[in-house]
Design a protein that fits this description.
The chain is α+β, with helices and mostly antiparallel strands. The protein is 26% helix and 28% strand. The protein is globular and about 110 Å long.
């Protein structure tokens, strides 16, 4: 029988509001829908044109302001120009037509340039690149077909070509080769747009030339978004909306776009309003939004310290009520660092309510991220849940499962004992996304979605409180949320926090207890060693009861508490804990000072697993309002390995429902170095998806450092084996979770086996100067067979800064409250690459630190010799690798802080440039010192007996096997592994470093003695040579050359110096005739037949061979240089226009009369001595090809020149040749690239 057609769609599950009581609250209080509340969305940016983000329920603008605080949208508009005849010249070189309707009393126009792709999120850039390629391909195919046909016609008409015809054919073939190469190497920089900023007498105005033709009349004129709330769209193709802000008196333009769709989706969950489709509304449709883009487009939407500090400044400036932050990272230590301090200041001093996601790094415990799970001041750490209604509406699951947490959601507690998770909220929604996605809405999930849901709920509550004149604070709101949250059955405390947020109950709580004493006082909980809770996890903490000092300190909101109130503050608490293994005082009196009491935790007798409880402090005058403060207590009791032979622990018949987890805590045996997990399904019918997550935690280390995570799919009766490194004498959590949406129940068997292969040095480093180096290895658990191998795959080059400067960052966006100015340190590093290399810049002193860093921010940019941006990165270097061509590069590192002296400390900081080695270097390992010294028999394997130590010896790397261009202080790094087969090979590996202390000098032949000269002769020659060295430095009309020419008419270096002076003169074209004359003079002084005869000899065995060779090489170089300069002068005389010789104030001068045959004669002379592609000859080879209109050949040679060292002149000549060939699509494409490859200056940070 067919199932009935159900026409009622479960709309409640699309954007969940029912589970939190938001729907019910709005039904009872329709005017408390977020009106009067401003939510700041710190994310990837909000699209002002996205559905549902235009107006609030009461007709107010939905988005109050849009800002990009990352700097990725900044444009340098410091260049000022004046209009002439209604036109200005943009930085692209385009003529920009100024509309007659523009008002500009000063007449000054600030101009800048921006590439659209620099503003595009990754997915949009990929789509546009694909679409633009689809437009390029037909044109390119047509030109390729035309070139191929031209060659076929030529071959048909010239069966026996002469020499000139051969050149013509080669040129036709070159055109085909060039077109084929351009097709293979196609790369698109995207549209490049001129930007114009001017003041109309009232405000700053901005016009971005989205037409790319200079027709500014067709482009939208904008101003600072907050003033008029207007935005533009770059084009119908991209549908990327943008807004603008102007800084520093028009010298900096800020273009605001999105770095991803995430921020718009988050904004839609919090506060979208659809007047005609209320079921699609966000949680608080009456709230207004401020879109603060903190996801840097340059870094793939990564947040930076710069962005977060500027965001805090903007939040205070706009007086936002609620802050939503759906970002975060793993940190080394909780609740400290410059960024965390500034975030805390925002809450504690300025009274802002900050809600943040906890992270998506579960399911193991202690995986909450920073700042959401680790910063005390942030009041809303949100875990994400998925309800039955969401499962049906959003995920189209066949079954309605009980409410649960997503598999990947992070769990508490924090490393310092805090619960780490405050509340839960629905963690998925189908909500608006930016127009550039070409979708109206999209499904996203994670704690990123739970946080805006909670933010919307808080906005509803605050809307009601404001309407009723109730005073609230971050403290009172947090307390209400936690004390009224709804516990989710079957979900552990570490996952759900205090429960699912309940809007009505929290609102009623705040209304009922609005006048209670201490309502706005935060009670800071600090335990021994400055921790925020009690966390007993490691085995040594479980042997006996622990006595912990707990300090409770009242913290008043600075802006609301007077001195008299502080003096009179006095509260009485009763302390309650439900668990018998915790002993604490029964009462505590707290005045306006910290109070300390002792807590006794006795973990003996607790069962294996995780245990959580709290000491709750209740106000004795009103216990019904729930705890005023809580002391979180977590105890982890691990299992001990009973099998002392194989060190295996087995778990049989583990049953899994969707989303169900099994946590196994194991005391890792002393001497263990890796664990092997074996999973086998006992189900004969179903597949299953299992998340394996292993975790150990250590002080001042992020949880990611000691974790293993793998999502595996097991077929019926299937199995998997996984291995990972472990640290001994520490608790290991092995968490197995069935994927939340994987229906059905399965049974698994699991065993975990430990192996112990330990070096005497856990971080082995070999110093090359030590020669043979010894290491000892021991099997501490059981007998093991090992096969040591060392593979080095990276070379680290230390760089010292060549320049440093500390700048004061002017402007309100870099000015903290109370006039605290932010400064920036800019360090410049130079490096040279001799071949194509993949590199990773790493300021190791600051790396992997963001929120917890004592500095505000770090970001670096790498430029080539033409100032083209090649890449950038931030505090996490391994996320940003670049493949660079050979050449010179400049890296600029930018670090910020409000104290200059803190920045001065870094002025000499060393930066490491990690090079990826193409072919790994293998170090030889020997069983004895003697073998390593004489390169004898190598070590193959060792059968180790438990407990016995075994040495092995490593010989230094021979000089000829070291990478080229290494220097003293360079470091080779890779892995030392002990097991041959995977997965144990990787698990058994440790990082190995090889320090290069000295480098063998390159062999150079010493100078042979020439004929003896008297001191007087040496003096005269020295004076002559010194005078000659000044000729290129003086003006061309200086008489020095003429004087020396009379005295030394046959001295070649003298004429070469004159040639250099003429050739490098600014007015070179005016001296073409003299250049040719001097070149012929040089050539006449060289005995070319004798030179040819010398280089025709096989060998010269005479006693003076070396001296003769030196003289002949100098003559050949002079001959080649003169011929090349002669040829270039001849070519210029043909190619250049007479008008290029003079400026407008002078009469035109005549060019020397030169014919093409003369250029060809010079070319034939040159190729007797060198290849046309020789770097010294190449400039003339290019000109020769252009003179003969061999444009294909010219392009090939120009490409060669650009490969060696790109320059603007060569790139421009390529564009001119495309035009001459009629390849219009290539001309447009590469003319566009010129603005990206050859910018006028470095980009702003």
């Amino acid at each position: 029988m067919a199932s009935p057609v159900v026409t009622d769609f479960p709309l409640d599950g699309i954007l969940p509001k029912k589970e939190t009581g938001a729907s019910s609250f709005l039904t009872k209080n329709p005017d408390f829908d977020g009106r009067g509340i401003v939510i700041a969305i710190l994310d990837t940016g909000i699209d002002p044109g996205a559905p549902g983000l235009q107006v609030t329920t009461d007709g107010q603008p939905k988005i109050i302001d849009l800002v990009d605080v990352t700097g990725s949208g900044d444009v340098d508009t410091s260049k000022v120009v004046q209009a002439k005849e209604g036109q200005i010249t943009g930085l692209t070189g385009r003529t920009l037509k100024v509309p007659s309707g523009w008002q500009n009393p000063s007449g000054d126009y600030h101009v800048g340039v921006k590439c659209l792709f620099d503003l595009c999120p990754r997915l949009l850039k990929e789509r546009l690149t694909r679409e633009r390629r689809e437009k390029w391909d037909p044109q390119h195919r047509q030109k390729l077909a035309e070139a191929t046909k031209a060659l076929e016609i030529f071959d048909n008409n010239h069966s026996s070509p002469n020499q000139e015809e051969k050149f013509t054919r080669a040129d036709l073939q070159a055109q085909i080769d060039i077109l084929t190469s351009l097709d293979k190497k196609y790369s698109d920089c995207g549209p490049v747009m001129d930007c114009v900023v001017f003041h109309d007498g009232n405000t700053w105005r901005v016009c971005v030339d989205t037409s790319q033709t200079g027709e500014l009349e067709t482009c939208k004129l904008l101003t600072t978004f907050r003033n008029e709330r207007e935005y533009g769209t770059f084009s119908e193709e991209d549908m990327l909306n943008f807004a603008v802000n102007i800084h520093n008196d028009g010298n900096v333009l800020e273009i605001i776009t999105n770095s991803g769709s995430h921020g718009t989706h988050v904004a839609g969950i919090s506060a979208a309003h659809f007047p005609d489709q209320p079921e699609r509304n966000g949680v608080a449709p009456g709230a207004q939004l401020v879109g603060i883009k903190i996801g840097d487009t340059r870094l793939g939407s990564m947040e930076t310290g710069t962005a977060l500090v500027r965001a805090m400044i903007k939040v205070i400036e706009l007086n936002c009520d609620v802050i939503n932050y759906s970002y975060g990272e793993a940190s080394h230590w909780p609740n400290s660092g410059r960024i965390c301090d500034i975030l805390s200041e925002l809450v504690d001093k300025h009274g802002k309510i900050f809600l943040s996601s906890a992270g998506n790094n579960g399911p193991a415990l202690s995986t909450v991220g920073t700042p959401g799970g680790t910063t005390s001041a942030i009041i809303g750490w949100c875990r994400c849940s998925v309800s039955p209604e969401m499962m049906v509406a959003e995920y189209s699951l066949r079954e309605r499962l009980p409410i649960m947490q997503y598999t990947w959601s992070s769990r508490g507690p924090t490393h310092d004992g805090d619960l780490g998770v405050s509340i839960s909220a629905p963690g998925g929604a189908i909500a608006p996304v930016p127009n550039w996605t070409l979708k109206g809405c999209q499904l996203m999930n994670g704690t990123s979605m739970s946080s805006p849901n909670a933010s919307g709920c808080v906005a509803l509550i605050l809307s009601g409180l404001k309407a009723n004149g109730v005073v609230y604070s971050p403290v009172s709101v947090r307390r209400a949320l936690e004390n009224t949250a709804k516990k989710i059955d079957g979900v552990e405390m570490f996952s759900q926090g205090h429960g699912l947020i309940q809007v009505e109950r929290a609102y009623e709580f705040l209304m009922r207890y609005q006048d209670q004493k201490g309502n706005h006082v935060k009670f800071s909980v600090t335990c021994t060693a400055n921790k925020r809770g009690i966390y007993l996890r490691e085995p040594y903490r479980l042997q006996k009861p622990s006595e912990i000092a707990v300090t409770i300190e009242p913290c008043h909101l600075e802006s609301r508490t007077g001195q008299e109130e502080k003096i009179s503050f006095d509260m009485y608490f009763c302390l309650v804990c439900d668990e018998p293994w915790v002993k604490a005082p029964s009462h505590l009196q707290v005045m306006n000072t910290s109070r300390t009491f002792n807590v006794n935790v006795d973990p003996r007798g607790l069962s294996e697993g995780a245990h959580y409880t709290e000491i709750c402090g209740y106000d004795v005058s009103c216990t019904e309002k729930g705890p005023v403060f809580r002391v979180p207590i977590t105890v982890i009791v691990p299992s001990r390995i009973k099998d002392q032979k194989q060190f295996t622990i087995t778990y049989q018949d583990l049953s899994f429902r969707p989303g169900q987890s099994h946590r196994k805590f194991i005391d890792v045996p002393d001497g263990a170095s890796m664990a092997v997990v074996h999973l086998q399904s006992a189900d004969t019918e179903k597949n299953c998806r299992i998340m394996i997550h292993a975790m150990q935690i250590f002080p001042t280390s992020p949880y990611k450092k000691y974790e293993f995570e793998k999502l595996v799919t097991l077929s019926d009766l299937g199995e998997t084996t996984q291995a990972f490194p472990v640290q001994d004498d520490s608790t290991l959590e092995l968490c197995l979770v069935k994927w939340w949406a994987n229906l059905g129940e399965v049974t698994l068997n699991c065993d975990i086996t430990f192996h112990g292969i330990q070096l005497d040095n856990k971080t082995p480093v070999m110093n090359a100067a030590d020669g043979v180096t010894r290491f000892n290895v021991r099997a501490k658990l059981k007998n093991e067979e090992i096969s040591p191998a060392i593979s080095l795959k990276a070379l680290s080059q230390p760089l010292r800064p060549t320049e440093y400067k500390v700048r004061c960052l002017h402007g309100p966006r870099d000015l903290l409250p109370e006039g605290r100015q932010i400064y920036a340190l800019e360090l410049t590093y130079k490096f040279l690459l001799n071949k194509v290399t993949e590199v990773i810049p790493d300021c190791s002193m600051l790396s992997d630190l963001l929120y917890e860093s004592v500095y505000e921010s770090q970001i670096w940019m790498v430029y080539d010799c033409n100032k083209q941006l090649m890449g950038c990165g931030d505090a996490y270097p391994r996320s940003y690798s670049m493949k660079l061509e050979k050449g010179d590069y400049t890296l600029i590192l930018h670090v910020r802080h409000e104290k200059r002296d803190m920045l001065e400390r870094l002025k000499n900081v060393v930066l490491l440039l990690h090079h990826k080695i193409t072919t790994a270097i293998t170090l030889d390992i020997y069983p004895t010192w003697q073998n390593s010294l004489v390169s004898g028999k190598k070590l193959i394997s060792i059968n180790m007996v438990r407990g016995q130590s075994y040495p092995f010896f490593i010989a230094p790397i021979p000089d000829d096997k070291l990478p080229k261009s290494v220097g003293a202080g360079y470091i080779l790094s890779g892995n030392l592994s002990f097991v041959k087969e995977e997965p144990m090979k990787k698990a058994s590996s440790v990082t190995f470093k090889y320090i290069i202390t000295t480098v063998a000098p390159s062999s150079k032949n010493g100078k042979s003695k020439g004929e003896e000269k008297t001191k007087e002769e040496e003096c005269q020659e020295s004076i002559r040579d010194h005078k000659i060295s000044w000729i290129p430095k003086l003006k061309v009309d200086n008489p020095l050359y003429a004087e020396l020419k009379q005295e030394f008419p046959d001295h070649l270096p003298l004429h070469a110096a004159r040639l250099q002076a003429l050739d490098s003169a600014k007015d070179r074209l005016q001296h073409l005739g003299e250049i040719m004359e001097v070149c012929r003079l040089v050539l006449s002084k060289i005995d070319q037949p004798a030179l040819l005869a010398y280089y025709g000899m096989k060998t010269d065995e005479s006693a003076e061979a070396e001296i003769v060779k030196g003289k002949m090489d100098k003559q050949k170089a002079a001959l080649l240089d003169a011929n090349v300069k002669l040829g270039l002068a001849q070519a210029d005389a043909i190619l250049k226009s007479p008008s290029e010789l003079t400026d407008d104030s002078q009469d035109e001068l005549e060019l020397p009369l030169v014919i093409v045959d003369e250029v060809n004669d010079t070319y034939r002379e040159i190729i007797k001595w060198a290849e046309p592609t020789d770097s010294k000859v190449l400039p003339f080879s290019i000109s020769h090809a252009i003179v003969n209109k061999y444009y294909g050949k010219a392009l090939q040679l120009l490409f060669k020149q650009c490969e060696d060292k790109s320059n603007k002149e060569a790139e421009k000549r390529c564009v001119e040749i495309y035009r001459s060939l009629g390849w219009d699509h290539c001309e447009r494409h590469f003319a566009n690239w010129l603005h990206v490859k050859m910018p006028a200056s470095y980009r702003p940070f």
